[in-house]
Design a protein that fits this description.
The chain is an all-alpha fold. The protein contains 23 helices and no strands. Residues 473-510 are annotated as: Disordered.
Length: 510
């Protein structure tokens, strides 16, 4: 099966990512739907912030649940549970009759999305070969962007339902069919092979790696890859303390966590969700009609999905760090220009129509620069920096922190716009400039390395080198590798290799 099976699993599980993107786009088009505005009495200020940020609050809780569940239940089952919870939350939002009920549905849906947001990139990264891991995990962001675009298109269509609450209930309800498809289809997807090895299910893990990475040509590669996984996980189980406190007490694990926190929180500090969630309010302040607000948002969604695809496709060539640096620098310029346009062309006494159009143009430039640099990068980087023993929990902590920052920013954004106006954009210009410098000084490049070899970048032991495995020319060694593979295919765990570990502590510096 090989690549086709890997891509199929990636695309299917990314339905969960689509749900996140759809809801992100759905809420901001709802805010421009006249029937929604009338039904909930024109939400403003702190209450508007609560409606939007309640989702992020629930997601933060969901991330922590996923950190525990992905290790105990497995990555696939955690995604399964998250899909079920998403279905419940969506149903409550669709049937809401009060603001409180709507917020309750948002919180439940947020818990689900937090679980999916944390578990899906982890699952994808553990299915992917090293050469295309950025592209495969980047599909999480592509699917998210597609969901954002589709929700904008649906909002544009239902806008014309003028005399019914279906104008805003239908877009919410359309989240349910993909959730049902994901719930049913997950039964046929494989478990993560690395998680299977952690559970001692070696033969099943071997079969899974073979299905994912063997195209009928180079059998040596997937056997070498499996051997590296197996021995690294055995070493970590024997030598590593894996409780939650080690994220603080063990220096090299703490460094991994700080790097993950930087990228996860840094994504929020780019200003992306303040633009995404409140762009209809921005367009309204620029004099755009309700329908034009939705149409502009639709165009934004199309452009974002395309730009994300570019990032995911090229990230394995460009590298993670250079891409983040270039995007951060570009976003610094974008927010500086937006600030100047508001100060000298939009705000009284100027009210310049050309400046208003330029602001919309720069929001689209923001979308392209952000999506091309960050959207395909953060899901890959924030999962691959952790060792197998700590990946699920480390990713969940990073995602939790991301949603906490998002919650705070979303809650304060409408208040900030009311009180300091365009000056709020200066904050994001400063943050992006700082991120560019920090990424240059401190982020190690992970492009092209296996998940096991990334350990060396943080000063940890890599038990088996893929380079050494693939360059073996000793016939006896090759015969032993074939024997190991044959034993695994018969369901034998290959315990004959146990204890024969080769230490390579400096792979990352080659």
């Amino acid at each position: 099966m090989g690549k086709f099976y890997t891509y199929f699993c990636t695309v299917f599980v990314a339905i969960g990512s689509y749900l996140f993107g759809y809801d992100s786009g759905c809420i901001q088009t709802l805010l421009a739907q006249p029937k929604f505005v009338i039904y909930f009495h024109d939400l403003q200020g702190a209450l508007l912030g609560a409606v939007i940020s309640s989702y992020a609050g629930g997601a933060a809780v969901g991330c922590i649940i996923a950190g525990w569940g992905a290790d105990w239940l497995g990555r696939r089952r955690t995604i399964h549970v998250g899909s079920l919870v998403a279905l419940i939350g969506t149903a409550i939002q669709t049937g809401s009759v009060t603001v409180g009920m709507f917020i309750c549905g948002r919180i439940i849906a947020g818990i689900a999305i937090g679980m999916l947001y944390s578990a899906i990139p982890t699952y994808m990264s553990e299915l992917a070969p090293p050469s295309t891991r950025g592209w495969i995990v980047g599909f999480h962001a592509i699917s998210l962007s597609i969901g954002y675009f589709v929700s904008s298109a649906v909002g544009a269509g239902t806008y014309w339902i003028k005399h019914s609450d279906a104008q805003w209930r239908v877009p919410l309800a359309l989240q349910m069919p993909p959730a049902v498809i994901l719930i049913v289809g997950l039964f046929w997807l494989p478990f993560s092979p690395r998680w299977l090895l952690e559970q001692g299910r070696d033969a099943e893990a071997y079969d899974t790696v073979k299905k994912l990475h063997y195209d009928g040509v180079d059998e040596h590669f997937f056997r070498a890859e499996f051997h590296q996984m197996k021995e690294q996980i055995a070493y970590e189980k024997a030598n590593c303390i894996t409780d939650w406190k080690t994220f603080v007490t063990v220096p090299h694990i703490r460094k991994r966590l700080v790097v993950a926190l930087f990228i996860q929180c840094g994504v929020q500090l780019t200003g992306v969700n303040c633009i995404n969630y409140y762009q209809t309010a921005i367009y309204k302040s620029l004099g755009q009609s309700s329908y034009n607000q939705i149409l502009i948002t639709l165009g934004y969604g199309i452009w974002g999905a395309w730009s994300t695809g570019v990032c995911a496709f090229y990230i394995d060539r460009w590298g993670r760090v250079k891409t983040i640096m270039a995007s951060s620098a570009g976003l610094t310029v974008v927010f500086t220009c937006i600030t100047i346009l508001f100060a000298k062309g939009v705000n009284p006494p100027y009210d310049n129509p050309g400046a208003k159009k330029a602001v919309v143009a720069f929001i689209f430039i923001f979308c392209g620069v952000y999506a091309t640099g960050f959207n395909g990068t953060w899901p890959a980087y924030s999962t691959e920096v952790f060792s197998q023993a700590m990946r699920a929990r480390g990713t969940s902590i990073g995602a939790f922190a991301s949603f906490v920052v998002q919650l705070v920013l979303i809650q304060i954004t409408p208040v900030a716009f009311q009180n300091i106006g365009y000056r709020f954009y200066i904050l994001f210009a400063v943050f992006n400039a700082a991120m560019c410098v920090i990424a240059w000084l401190w982020m190690p490049e992970t492009k092209g390395l296996t998940l096991e070899e990334i350990n060396a970048l943080f000063g940890e032991v890599v038990v088996v080198s893929m380079q050494d495995e693939l360059s073996l020319s000793d016939p006896a060694s090759n015969e032993n590798a074939e024997k190991t593979g044959g034993e695994m295919e018969k369901g034998v765990s290959g315990e004959a290799d146990k204890g024969q570990l080769t230490l390579h502590e400096n792979i990352g510096s080659r």
